[in-house]
From TrEMBL:
The keyword NADP does not apply. InterPro entries: DMSO/NO3_reduct_chaperone, NO3_reductase_chaperone_NarJ, TorD-like_sf. Residues 209-220 have a biased composition (Pro residues). The keyword Cell cycle does not apply. This is Nitrate reductase molybdenum cofactor assembly chaperone. Residues 180-230 are annotated as: Disordered. Keywords: Nitrate assimilation. It comes from Streptomyces palmae. GO terms for molecular function: metallochaperone activity; unfolded protein binding.
Length: 230
């Protein structure tokens, strides 16, 4: 439920999403007490009070115009390099191996898509992409906090569901904030190798094992992902 709510809140706030605010708010109110529920309650208080146009402007400013709070997770690992294309392909393979077709019109690393996959597939494999991109999620949350954006509460709620960051994670996030994602280099091996100081852990691009196609229906029709049309 928490993952599905985070997925919906991080989508573009079009008319369909904003019309569903009362229903979403009631689901947040019904969550068991937890740090994540408190964070989502803080976000919902702002989200339900703002005018639709103000929500749209704020969303575009935070997620479309600022690289440090982009919702495309592979950007933080690979920047605009050829390795990012391989990472996107691997993520798509993971979805297909689980029998899930995002069919969203978004890239497979778009955070709302990754969150919906985790919500539908469950712990373990479903949440693996979130754990893999934890450092990017930390950077997004820091950027939203620096901008005093209420969306920081959604990222804070999500991070409470993941294992605590390690010292290596904290150091990598600080370095990433200071230096930015990697840039394409002339003569870069198109298949890529891992060197000291890079953010991608070994085994990042290992394709997942295939599984029989399955589809998991959403538990509540009101929480089915709504794709924003910009």
């Amino acid at each position: 439920m928490l993952l599905r709510l985070c997925s919906l809140f991080l989508q573009y706030p079009d008319s369909e999403i904003t019309a569903a605010r009362p229903v979403l708010g009631s689901h947040v109110e019904g969550l068991p007490p937890s740090p994540a529920a408190e964070q989502l309650a803080a976000f919902t208080a702002w989200f339900t009070a703002e005018e639709t146009q103000a929500l749209e402007r704020h969303y575009v400013e935070m997620f479309d115009l600022r690289r440090k709070s982009s919702l495309h997770l592979t950007y933080y690992l690979h920047g605009d390099t050829r390795r990012r294309g391989m990472a996107l392909l691997t993520l798509n393979q993971r979805y297909r191996a689980a029998g899930w077709d995002a069919d969203s019109g978004e890239l497979p690393d778009h955070l709302p898509v990754v969150l919906e996959f985790a919500a539908l597939t469950g712990p373990g494999g479903g949440e693996a992409p979130l754990r893999q991109h934890r450092r990017g999620l930390e950077l997004i949350q820091h950027a939203l906090t620096d901008a005093d954006s209420p969306y920081r509460h959604v990222l804070a709620a999500l991070l409470t569901l993941l294992p605590p960051p390690t010292e290596a994670d904290r150091a990598a996030v600080s370095r990433l904030a200071a230096e930015g994602p990697p840039n394409e280099e002339v003569g870069l091996d198109p298949y890529g190798t891992y060197e000291d100081g890079e953010f991608a852990p070994p085994g990042t691009f290992v394709p997942p094992m295939a599984a029989p196609p399955t589809r998991v229906p959403p538990a509540d029709p009101t929480l089915t992902r709504v794709e924003g049309n910009r």
